[in-house]
Amino acid sequence: MLTDNLAHRALFTLPPIRPSAETAPAVQALPEQKVVTGDKEVDAVFWLREVIKTGQAGPIATALDAAKQIKTPLKEIEQRYVDYVKRNSGGNPFAVMFSFGFADLEGLAKGSLEKVALVSEARARFEGETIFEDTPAEQFCEKALKRCKGFKSYFDNDKAQVAKRFRKHAELMPHTLDDCLHEIAYWGRLYVLRHAAGEWGDGIHEAIAREWFVQGLLSEIKPRDKAEALRVLDYAAQAESIEHDGMVAIARNLIASGGLPA
């Protein structure tokens, strides 16, 4: 099949962003300056970190500017904080490990702003707490794998039986590699939005099994052209869930279609 499956695309698509939804985060009061370590410069950086964590663009920009006015190199201040944590945690390796990066205010700011943007998107796509309810795609996965022989969890199951169940629903099977990438992106974005919106685990096991099944199709479905093949290769190169054997299988599938038009 050389055309995208529109029914499949419709199911594995997030709700549209509601234009009237309130997406701007509420303005927060700046955190109070506190004596945390007794080292004035360390405590100053500690407070700048708390300001950045509010996710407010204006205060974040001010905090980053303020950090530039500190004469002592931030790396030196970070080492003093690490030493403080070592002394006060009894050398707890986990406490010490999490104290590294203390002075990376730019990285903290980037992450804070990204989280605010994700929270805003989650609120715009899902009303109230509905983001934590099963989506139609998840309901489909649960139904498809209901009483599936050998299915206990996403990591303990009979993969052949799982594939058989999903293939029974031909109307919702990906037709193209782009369909596969579309669905994989759906699961990834849903996961990211849920984690930004609140506490969330891995998700339902049936949905994870589906995502892995579709990922496996990247080594079966033939690319329509070189551009599609390259999109798959770009995805596979950065996908942490694809192991060596899976990467080889995908590469073989793409190479076997080397005669495709540009």
Overall mean pLDDT score? 92
Radius of gyration, CA atoms, in whole angstroms: 24 Å
* DSSP strand count: 0
Percentage beta strand? under 5%
Structural class: mainly alpha
What is the general shape? elongated
Order of helices and strands: HHHHHHHHHHHH
Considering DSSP H and I runs of 4 or more, what fraction of the residues is helical? 55-70%
Q: What's the gist of this structure?
A:
The chain is mainly α and 262 residues long. Helix content is 57%, strand content 0%. It has two domains: 6-17 and 132-255, no CATH class; 40-125, no CATH class.
Question: Could you characterize what this model shows?
Answer:
With 262 residues, this protein is mainly alpha-helical. 57% of the residues lie in helices and 0% in strands. The protein has two domains: 6-17 and 132-255, no CATH class; 40-125, no CATH class. The protein contains twelve helices and no strands. The two termini are 19 Å apart. The mean pLDDT is 92.
What are the SSEs and their pairings?
Blueprint (H helix, E strand, L loop, with lengths): L5 H6 L28 H13 L4 H12 L5 H15 L4 H7 L5 H21 L10 H9 L14 H9 L9 H21 L7 H12 L9 H13 L5 H12 L7
Helix pairs in contact: 2-3, 3-6, 4-5, 6-9, 9-10, 11-12
Which features characterize this protein?
2 domains, elongated, mainly alpha, 12 helices, 0% strand, 262 residues
